[in-house]
Design brief:
The chain has 178 residues and is mainly alpha-helical. It is built from six helices and two strands.
Length: 178
């Protein structure tokens, strides 16, 4: 065997031995996730409403949930505070006005609002709201923005029909994808 082949074979053997030793000493973090555990976190909602859960809520029900779980950060009527403002701002996104990005002025899809509230709110207890509480809270926020009537009921069938004021304010880079 030539000297170069011996060196290459020796280097390969050393690399395999080092890799095996490293793998044996690697940290053992986590554990395999069960299908049920994975499903509990698979809560994504598509813009067309695919993935919306059962449940329902009205603005009146949402006002109660909002007062208990949202007002301390977002203000009594969504005017903002520790958390961002949720109400108003319609018509402010075009220059030269200072944009006011709120649920009523910026968000393009009602399903995105539902998804965000369900996944991330309340800030200190994300994913703690029931589906009914999320539908009700979203209904209340839409109502105080004048997007729906105080008598409307939000559920997986009605939420997708809500027309957000800024729905056409975005450029669709991937038409017909959803």
């Amino acid at each position: 065997m030539s000297m170069s082949k011996t060196i290459v074979a020796g280097a390969a053997a050393l690399a395999v031995a080092a890799g095996s030793a490293f793998a044996a000493d690697a940290a053992k973090f986590g554990k395999p996730i069960s299908e049920a555990d994975a499903k509990a976190w698979d809560i994504s909602i598509a813009p067309d409403g695919k993935g919306l859960p059962d449940g329902s809520g009205t603005p009146a029900q949402g006002a109660m949930v909002y007062a208990q779980k949202c007002a301390s950060c977002h203000g009594e009527k969504g005017e903002g505070g520790l958390g961002p403002r949720l109400v108003g701002g319609q018509g402010t996104l075009k220059a030269p006005a200072q944009p006011v990005q709120t649920i009523g002025s910026y968000w393009a899809y009602p399903t995105s609002v539902f998804d965000y509230v369900r996944r991330a709110m309340p800030y200190a207890q994300p994913k703690s709201l029931t589906n009914d509480e999320v539908y009700a809270t979203v209904a209340y926020i839409f109502s105080i923005n004048g997007i729906i009537k105080d008598t409307d009921v939000m559920n997986k069938d009605t939420l997708v029909k809500v027309q957000m004021p800024n729905r056409d304010g975005f450029i669709d880079l991937y038409p017909r994808k959803f």
